[in-house]
Structures are given as C-alpha cells and as structure tokens.
Specification:
The chain is of the alpha/beta class. The protein is built from 31 helices and 30 strands.
C-alpha cells in the first residue's frame, strides 16, 4: 500500500462517503447533528449547540473518528443465533476489527464456568447473578473500572455505589493514558488539567505538539493548527516518527487547502524514543543562554527557579544531545522559535506520558512554559490532549482510588453517609491483586480492560482468577473473548445518543457539555444509570445507611448532587433549566495566580534517564493506526503510514540493512516480558534509526508492568526489544 503525502484530503472525503453509505447517509447525518457530545476524542464537539459544532460555536466541525464511532453504533443487532454458531475459541481468532463490526449487543450474555459459548439470558437473571455475587463477596475483594466514554452521571453513581458497598478500588482508563499529566500538572499549578480554553488555543502564535499524532487521533485539532499556520504562526512538532498529517494536511472544508494542502510543522524534531526529557531540558537551557527567560515572572510567580537555572547551567550540551538524540543546532532552532513567540501553547499526548518518567516529562514541559511566562495569561498555556470523550470528566467527579478530602466531606455531609477509608488501588494494581487471589469480582463500565492493559499474558491470567467479571458494553471487543473470568457477564447498554435522559461530559478544555440523548435503536439495551441504580438498590437493600437509589436513577438528581459535592461544578445544578454549558471553575489560568497553597507555580529539577538500546536492541513504541481509536480498530489498513495489516514492525531501512533484514521478512520480536512470532518487517524511513514502531494493543504482549512511580502509568513507550530473524519468510510487498 502506498503512503499518502498529506493528511485528510480526498482520501478522507472518499472514506467519509463510504462510512455514510454503511450507516445510511441521511440516518448518519441526523445522528451526527443530534445535541449530543462527540463519542470520540475530548476536543468537545456537539452538545446543546447541536452536533458538528465545537465549544466556540463553529460549524461544521466533524472528523473521521466521529463518523466511525457513530456508524459503529448504527449497526444492526447481533442476531440471537450468533452465540450458538460461534464458540469462544472461534471468537478469540477474530481481530478487533471483526469483533467491532459484528453488530450491536442487545441481549445480556453469560459465559458459565467451563462453557464453550456465550449464552443469551434474561435481564432479570443477569442482574440477580451480579447481586448475589456482590452480596456474598467482601467489598475489598472487588474493583471497578470505568471507560472514558460513559457519562458523568453514570460514573458518579457507580463510584458512589462502589464506595457505599465498601470498596475504594475505583479507577478509570486514565491510569493507562494521561494520569501522568494529571499528577505532573497538579505538582506545577495545583490543578491537573488544561490551563486554557479552545479560544486561547485558536489565538496562539506558536504551538508545540509533543509526542502525539493528532492528524490520526484528533483530526479536528488539525484545523486549529492549520489556521495558526495560515495566519503566520509556527507549529513545532516533537515526535520520533515523521507523521504525514503533521507535515502537511489537506482540509476537506477549505478548497485551497484541499487542492494544495497546508504545511503544518514549521520545525520537526525527532528525538529517540524516551529522549523527550533531555530535549525539553535542552530547549530550556538554550532559553536561559540567550536571555529569553522572563525573570520577573519567574521570581514573582514561581518557586524553584534558582534550582532549575543552576541545573540547566550544569548540564552539558554533549550530554543533552546524546540523551535526546537531537543535534544541538536543532535544539537551538526550537528555542529560537519559542523565544520569538508571544502566545505559546504546549500540547502533548501519550508519547510524553507513557514512560517510566512520564510525570517528569510533563513537569519539564511546564518548566519550559513557565520560563517565559506562558502559563497564567490569555492565549497561552498547557494542554494535555486527551483521547476519550469524557475521561477527564470521570476524574473530575470522583472516579479515582483516592478522593480529595473536600469531596469526601461534602459527600458525607450531603447524603449523611460514611465512606470507606481503606486505600484504593490503581488499575494495574487491581489486576496484580486479582492475579494474587485478592480480588474476586470486577465491574467494568465500558471500555476494554484486557486490551488496554500491558503484559497481555499476565492480564489474561489475572482476570481468569476472578469469580465474576461484568462488562457494560455496546459492541464486542477483544476483552469480551480474551479477558475471561470463571464467570463472565456482558450487559448491553445504550449509546450516549440513545439515553432516555440528558447526560453530561467534560472536554479536555474543562468544558462541560450537555447531551440530550435520543431514541433507542434496538430493543434490549438499557441505560447505564438505570442498570447501576437497580443493582445498587438490591445489593445495598440491607445497608445500615439507607439510600434512595431509585430516586438517583433520575440524571437530574445526580447533577444536583454533583453540583453540591464537586468543587467547580456548581453550575451543574441549573444546567437542566438553563441549558448553559460551562467551564469548570478554578482550572483556567488567565492570570498568574495558581491553585497551589501559596498561589505560585512550581518548577522541577530532574535527572536525565538512560534510554537503553544499542547492541542489537531497538527502542519500541506502541502506537495507534490511522483507522483506529484507542483499542477499537475500525480499519485494518494504516493509510498515513502506507501499511496493510497489524502484524508488523516498522524499522528504518538503515537498521534493516545493518541487521540483514529484508522487506516483509517474518521475525520474532522479543522483550523481557514476552514475544510475538510471525511479525512482518516493514521498511519505514520516517522513523528515526534505532527505534521501532508496532501497533497497540496487539503489541501489549511485549510491554512490561514497569510504571512511572508517581502516576503508576505503564511504560508503553521505550520498550527494549530484539529481533530473531530465524525461519526467514519473504512475502510479496503490500
């Protein structure tokens, strides 16, 4: 398959038309125009201004990811005969793409101990089984996992249920993505989220895009970057791979861009995988050398400047260049672009957080921004680019093992309740406890816990130790057929735009959207809130602290509680009447007064980590393809990288020659954690030599359980691997 030369463009138009034909053009358009927040990334499309409208009220705003998610939910129901025709062993041979396209789940499914097939059962039996198991299980032996696609209302209700039941093992998918951002930002500004609004970003004159590929994963963000470039601004991209869409992007919505393309990166730096901390420190060192730091801001509004400055002057350029893999001249150029900027935004994604030093990476970005006073002013700031459409909202409303003291106090006083005090475990720690026999039940609100977790063999074995694993899902995924407990239940739930009551979601700009819901497409699936309230009422019917769970099945009542309990969400109390969407209070920093105890931002000093590699080993990063969103694979081809299939490893041709590898040769890839056989070697010049690229989640079998000590985020990047070229098999080029 030939790699395209620009992102978006005519291929995107053709693909969008194909997806429209799958879903039905008029049916898809009506669904996309509904007053519901986008189901894909957290950029903030949709809501009360109508679908295809962003937070700034601009129309039309739509991307391939939005279409893919909607078309998936518009599928026909999986027929009842499917479950007798396909054994678990059969389904385990299916790809993520095939499972996703099997149709909508419409019946509760039960996999009994020792059974070979899922069995459709009635809702009554499914709920009774869950209630009986929870009532018989010590609460500390249960954990509760939340996907980022659910609503604030369902998430708040489920975490409250879990805690009143007696478990603080409440966590969400952010521990596998942006938890390092939250911890890092909190250590700097006192708030763990973006410091700016979409409007701020649109007015920036310099944007750093670090460790991400928004052309594939957040396409609507490309329109902002495109307009910044068209108005004379600069975009600095930092990524070990030269990604097509970050070099040039053709917007289908603008004829000149569609015909001729728009240059995105004005400067593209390629560090070695894991070299970001050294590179960011190097840019900071150069800012200090040329006298571009804002000394007044640093002295008046920051703590730790003297310590950071001393370290920057102590580090040698030889060390910084060797540890980053970037020549000194290029680092100087990046610093010069930054020094010339008046309104600068630093944006990043999992290329920064998926490291053993993910929090330090985030702190280094913040150091750089603070050095020129680019936090605490309009049109500048820090922006973690979040993937799931409501993963930030879940963290905001209490989906975390450790609630803030203020939230605990308000919860207990508002409802007259007592919450458990035992420490909760993060996501990976819950799986490790399951493997050790210390967990008996897991309850998953959406998502694909198996597919998202590192060390796939370990994850499968850990889940197998559970007595019961419950999924609330709309469609099949690999977790349903590979991550199996002794007994597994799958409950079909409604998509966001099918909910009978309004729900809310929070964008990565701290903006709360109100989704209207809509008509159901299939008989059988139920509202997440309804399922949770019903289970809680039955499980806790004999509780010493009675609670009206059925009343809380009203999402309006839940919003009133969120407004009373969660700081910054006070406007949630009136959103039903006013339909006024809002920014969460206390998070946006347009003046240099921060949410820390003394109001000052904190700078941090770091030691540079060793990268590893060499001596026949490669530094591997796992990534998503162009036709993918998180663990969901919509297409088997990767248009932007020119690859068909996912059983591949992408290497620089120079590395292939050095190791005697041929194009399409099959090899075994080994890491200290696991191995994958029959992997096809693809020559890929855009990746920096010495580094390698494979697809997530298939390559998770190679990823160990090493985590960043501060955020507990696994290191999906900079995995050291070797290749075994024995039993060479050359295939025809694709």
């Amino acid at each position: 398959m030939k790699r395209v030369k620009t992102g978006g463009g005519w291929p995107a138009i053709r693909y969008a038309w194909r997806k429209a034909r799958e879903g039905g053009p008029w049916r898809l358009y009506r669904a996309m125009r509904g007053k519901n927040a986008c189901k894909s990334c957290a950029l903030g499309m949709g809501g009360q201004k109508g679908g295809m409208v962003n937070e700034a009220g601009q129309f039309p705003q739509v991307c391939i990811k939005s279409l893919q998610a909607m078309v998936g939910d518009l599928q026909d129901a999986i027929p009842a005969a499917f479950w007798s025709e396909h054994a678990i062993a059969d389904l385990q041979s299916w790809t993520s793409h095939t499972l996703e396209h099997s149709g909508r789940l419409v019946q509760p499914l039960l996999l009994r101990p020792g059974a070979t097939h899922f069995q459709p059962i009635a809702w009554t039996e499914a709920l009774d089984r869950i209630v009986a198991k929870l009532r018989a299980t010590p609460p500390p032996e249960t954990f509760w996992y939340f996907s980022g696609r659910s609503s604030n209302e369902a998430s708040f209700l489920l975490q409250l249920f879990a805690r009143l039941y007696g478990s603080n093992h409440v966590n969400n998918v952010s521990y596998y993505c942006h938890q390092a951002s939250g911890v890092g930002l909190t250590s700097v500004t006192g708030s763990g989220t973006a410091t700016l609004t979409l409007d701020d970003l649109q007015h920036a004159d310099v944007v750093f895009v670090i460790g991400g590929n928004p052309a594939s994963n957040h396409p609507r963000l490309m329109h902002v970057l495109m307009h910044i470039r068209q108005h004379g601004g600069q975009v600095v991209v930092i990524n070990p791979v030269i990604e097509t869409g970050l070099v040039n992007f053709s917007s289908p919505g603008e004829w000149r861009s569609l015909l001729f393309g728009t240059e995105i990166a004005s400067l593209y730096l390629q560090p070695d995988i894991g070299g970001d901390l050294a590179l960011l420190t190097g840019i900071a060192k150069r800012i200090d050398e040329i006298g571009a730091s804002d000394e007044a801001f640093l002295n008046d509004h920051c703590s730790g400047w003297s310590e950071l400055r001393a370290q920057l002057r102590r580090l040698s350029w030889t060390e910084l260049c060797a540890q980053s893999g970037v020549p000194q001249e290029q680092i100087h150029r990046a610093a010069q672009v930054y020094a010339a900027g008046r309104k600068v935004v630093f944006a990043w994604t999992m290329g920064i957080t998926h490291h053993r030093h993910g929090v330090e990476n985030v702190q280094a970005i913040a150091n750089l921004a603070l050095m020129r006073g680019m936090v605490g002013r309009p049109h500048a700031g820090l922006l973690p680019i979040r993937g799931h459409s409501n993963v930030q909202g879940m963290g905001s409303i209490g989906v975390t093992p450790k609630l803030k003291d203020a939230v605990i106090e308000r919860l207990e006083s508002h409802f007259g309740l007592s919450l458990p005090t035992a420490p909760g475990l993060d996501t990976l720690a819950c799986l490790e406890a399951a493997q050790d026999g210390r967990m008996r039940v897991a309850f998953c609100l959406g998502g694909n816990l198996y597919g998202a977790s590192p060390d796939s063999a370990f994850t499968r074995d850990a889940l197998a130790q559970l007595d019961l694993l419950v999924h609330l899902s709309t469609k099949l995924n690999t977790g349903h057929v590979h991550g199996l407990a002794r007994e597994t239940l799958v409950l079909p739930v409604l998509a966001r735009d099918e909910e009978p009551q309004p729900t809310t979601q929070e964008s990565m700009f701290n903006y709360v959207r109100l989704s209207a819901g809509g008509p159901v497409r299939h008989a059988g699936p139920r509202s997440e809130v309804q399922v949770i309230a019903t289970l809680a009422a039955d499980v806790l019917r004999d509780a010493k602290q009675p609670f009206d769970w059925q009343a809380m099945a009203d999402t309006g009542r839940i919003r009133e509680a969120i407004a009373a309990i969660i700081p910054g969400f006070e406007k949630m109390a009136t959103i039903d009447a006013t339909r006024e969407e809002f920014h969460v209070q206390g998070r946006l920093f347009h003046t240099p007064r921060f949410a820390t105890a003394d109001g000052r931002a904190r700078l941090h000093v770091h030691d540079l980590p060793a990268l590893g590699g060499g001596n026949g080993a490669f530094r591997l990063m796992t990534v998503r393809s162009e036709g993918q969103f998180n663990t969901v694979v919509y297409e088997e081809q990767d248009l932007y990288r020119g690859v068909v299939g996912r059983d591949v490893i992408l290497l620089h041709p120079e590395d292939m020659r050095e190791h005697g590898l041929a194009a399409n040769q099959r090899v075994t890839v080994r890491s200290p954690t696991g191995s994958l056989s029959g992997i096809r070697v693809i020559p890929f010049e855009p990746i920096k030599a010495g580094n390698a690229l494979m697809y997530y989640p298939e390559a998770n079998v190679l990823v160990g359980r090493d985590v960043d000590p501060q955020s507990h985020t696994p290191a999906y990047k900079n995995v050291l691997i070797t290749l075994d070229p024995r039993a060479v098999q050359c295939l025809s080029s694709s």
